[in-house]
Give the backbone structure.
Amino acid sequence: MLDDLPIDWSNLTTKQVASESGLQTGPFGSQLKASEYVDADGADVFFVVMPKDIVDNQIDFSTCAKIERSKADTLKRHWLEAGDVLFARRGDLSKVAVYEAAGIKAICGTGCLRLRPNQSIAVHRFLRAVITSHGAIEWLKAHAVGATMPNLNTEIIGKLPLRLPPLPEQERIAEVLTSVDDSIRATEAVIAQAERVKRGLMEDLLTGGFGIEAIARGEVPEGWRVRQLGELAEFQNGFAFKPKDWVQEGRPIIRIQNLNGGTDFNYYDKGLDERFLVKSGDLLFCWSGSRGTSFGARYWHGEDGWLNQHIFKCVPKQLVSKSYLYYLLDLMTEQIERDAHGGAGLVHIKKSEMVKFRYAVPNAQEQERLSSILSEADEMIASNKRVLDQLIMTKRGLMDDLLTGRVRTV
C-alpha cells in the first residue's frame, strides 16, 4: 500500500494526522439510550450520526436520531466539528463520511468513531478519499477484531497507514475526486428520477389510467379482461440443487444473487430436464428472500445455465407477450411481496398462490403499444446507468493514480 513513495510525500498513520482531540469513539449505550431520542426540530436539537446514517460516504441526516441540547451538553466530547471524519466501527467498515456542518448540530453516535484531523497536516476531503480507497478498506478489514462481526477501535484505526502529499496537492486531488463524486451523485439522481417516472408510467399505462387501487376494486378499462397470472404464463420453479452437486465446471447455476449482479457462480456438470434450462432473454421471477431486494422480474442476459430453486422461469401463454408480462410482474411485485409469508426477514410465495393473482390485461395490440413506451423509459435508465458505471470506473482509476503519486497534480 505504501511502496514507491514520491520524495515529497510522507508516510504517516491516522493517529499522527489527528488533532489533539483526535480519535474518539461514540458514546456507549449506557451514556445514550434510545429512550432519550426526541421527535423534534429546532436550533437546540442535535443529530446523532450512526453507521446506518452513512450512505455512499455521506451523512443522511433524514435518518438520524435526535436529542435535546440538554442531553447533548452531557456528551460534549462527542460533538462534531466541520471536517471531522466519521468511521463505522463495526459491520460495514467501508462506511466513512465527512461532517460538513452546514448549520446542522450533531454528535458522533454509538457505533461510530470520529477522527478530527490536524488541518496543518491533512485535508479532510483528501482523508476521506484515502480512507475509502480499496487498500485502506482491506487494511481495516484485515486488522478488525471479532469473529462474527468485524469491529474497530481507536487503537486499530490510529495505526491505519496513510501516504500524504503536501497540503496544496491534497487540496487539488480532493477537488478532482470531489468533482467526479458530484457527477456520480448527479447521475444517480437522474436515474432515481427516471425510475420514479417509469413507476408512474407503469401505474398509469398498465391500469388503463384507472390506477392500481381502482383495478384492485374490480374496475376494469373498456376492452380489458381480468386474468389470473396462471392464465397468462407458466411458472416453472428451479431445481433444488444441493452443495454436493456443485462443481468447478459445467453450466452455471443461476441463483438470486446472480440476477442482482453477482458474478460468483456454482456449476453443475450433469444433465437435467430442459424445463430447468435458462437461455439468454428468458424471463425470470424471484419469489423468495427479503422484501424490497430479492423479489421481482428480471431478464436473463448471460450464458445458458440451470435454474436454481426460489426462481420461476416465466413462459408467457397466448394471452400476453413476454415484454408485457415483464412489466406486469414488475408492477405487481409489491403486492406479491405483501402477500408473501415466512419469518426472520425471509419470506416466500408459493406457486399455487402466485398463479391466482388477478390483473386486468388489454388486447395484444395495446400490450405492444404500452410495452414500447415502457421500453423507451427502460433504455433511458440503462443509458444513464452506463454513464454511471463509466464514472465509477473513472474514479477508481483516478484514485489509483492520484492517491499513490503515480500521477501528480503539481
The chain is about 35% helix and 20% strand. Residues 125 and 175 are 8 Å apart (CA to CA). The radius of gyration is 26 Å. The mean pLDDT is 91.
